[in-house]
Amino acid sequence: MGDHSDGIPAGSDAVARAGLNEVEKFQDPGLPPHRKRLADTDPRAAQRAERQVAFLFGISVVGTLLFFFGYFFIRLDDTIATLRLQNILLGLGTAFAMLGIGTGIVHWARALMPDHEVSEERHELRSEADREAAVKIVDDIVEETGIKRRPLIRNTLLGAVALAPFPAIVMFRDLGPLPGNALRHTMWDKGTRLVRDPTGTPIMASDVTLGSVFHVIPDGLNDLKEGKLEEKAKAVVLLMRLEPSLLHPSKGREDWGYEGIVAYSKICTHVGCPVALYEQQTHHLLCPCHQSTFDLTQECKVIFGPANRPLPQLPISIDSEGYLVAQSDFHEPVGPSFWERG
Predict the structure, then answer these.
(1) Maximum CA pair distance of the chain?
(2) Architecture of 180-339 per CATH?
(3) Order of strands across the sheet with 261-265?
(4) pTM higher than 0.70, yes or no?
(5) Cys-Cys with 45: which of 4, 38, 96, 289 at CB 3.0–4.6 Å?
(6) How far apart are CA 97 and CA 89, in angstroms?
(7) Where in this chain does the record put each Rieske domain (predicted)?
(8) 3-state secondary structure string, the chain?
(9) Mean pLDDT throughout 221-243?
(10) Taking the C-alpha atoms of 78, 81, 84 and 90 in order, what is their torsion angle to the nearest 10 degrees?
(11) Cβ(280)–Cβ(301) under 8 Å?
C-alpha cells in the first residue's frame, strides 16, 4: 500500500503531478517555405497580370458610362420595352462598375502584390523613433503594392474609383425634393371632391353607410399626365362612417367630419406603409407592415405598434349637391413621423 497522505496514490500514473516531470515545450515550426508565383519570376507574366488588372478597372469605367447612357439618353415612353431596356442598362452598368473594381483589386493583390508572410511583435508607439518607424512601414506597404512602378494600374484605378460613385449620386438626386417639404402639401384643396379609387366616381354622403370604408383619392388625380403615382401616394385617404356619438373630436376639429363620416390619411406614420385594414367592431385601423393600430374614435390615436403619431385627418364637408368635398389640405405632413418638420 502506498502513501496516501496527500490524497493521491503514490504509485498511480492516472494523475500528473506538477514538478515531477518536465513538460517539453512546444516547438515553433516557423513559417512554411515561401512559394514564388509566376509573376515573381517571369517579367512577362507580371506585365500580363498588370494588363489584366488594368482591363478589369477599364470594365468598371465602361460600366459607369453604360449607366450614364441608360439614365440620360434612354427616354421613357408608354412602352414596356423602353422601360425594360433602361432597367437592363442601369443594372448592368452598376454591376460592371462595382464588379470591375472589386475583381481588379483582388487580382492585383493575388498576382502582383508581395505575398510572403511576416511575423513580428507588436509594440506601443510612443517615441518619435517609433512614429518614424510606423511611417516607414506605411511607405514600405505603398512601395510593395507597386502602384508607383505601375502607372497603368494606378491611372485605371483612379479613373474607376472616381467614376464609380456617380451613379449612386445620380440615383439619390433623382429621388426628388426633401420629403419634409414634399409631404407637407397634397392635391387636396377646398372644394375638391372625394372620389373612389381607382374609378374616380364622386361619393355622396348617403353612399357611406355605417361600418363601410372607402379608399378615396382627390378628384382630378386620374387626369394627371405626369406625377400621378407620386400625388396618389401622398393624397390617398380612408373614408369611414361611425355613429357620431362614438367620435371624440378635439377642440377645433368638431366640424372636420360630417354626420359621423371622417377621412384619414392612408399612409402609416411609422414608415409609410398603406393602412388598409379596418376592424368594424373595434373601430381600429391596422397597418399590416408592423401592426401599428390606430383608434378611429380618438382621432386615429396610436394604441399599439411602433408608430408614434396619429394618422393626419382630412377635414371634409358636403357641397350643394350632397357630394363629399375637402375643406382644405391636411393640416400636417402625411407619412412617416421622421419627415415631420416644425
Answers:
(1) 116
(2) 3-layer Sandwich (2.102)
(3) 194-196, 213-218, 237-241, 261-265
(4) no
(5) 38
(6) 12
(7) 221-325
(8) CCCCCCCCCCCCCCCCCCCCCCCCCCCCCCCCCCCCCHHHHCHHHHHHHHHHHHHHHHHHHHHHHHHHHHHHHCCCCCCHHHHHHHHHHHHHHHHHHHHHHHHHHHHHHHHCCCCCCCCCCCCCCCCHHHHHHHHHHHHHHHHHHCCCCCHHHHHHHHHHHHHCHHHHHHHHHCCCCCHHHHCCCCCCCCCCEEEECCCCCECEHHHCCCCCEEEEEECCHHHCCCCHHHHHHHHCEEEEECCHHHCCCCCCCCCCCECCEEEEECECCCCCCECCEEECCCCEEECCCCCCEEEHHHCCEEEECCCCCCCCECCEEECCCCEEEECCCCCCCCCCHHHCCC
(9) 92
(10) -90
(11) no
| Confidence band of 320 (pLDDT split at 50, 70, 90) | very high
Give the residue among 98, 112, 92 at the shortest CA–CA distance from 57.
98
The pairs formed by 119-123 with CB atoms below 8 angstroms and a separation of 24 or more are 119/31
Nearest by Cα to 167 from 59, 87, 65: 65
Domain boundaries, the chain: 38-117+127-173, 180-339
Confidence category of residue 197, pLDDT binned at 50, 70, 90: very high
What are the cell numbers at 72? 440620360
How confident is the model over 64-91, as pLDDT tens digits? 999 989 888 888 776 788 888 988 998 9
What's the confidence (pLDDT) of residue 342? Answer: 41
> What does the pLDDT average to over 147-168?
81
Q: What are the cell numbers at 68? A: 450614364
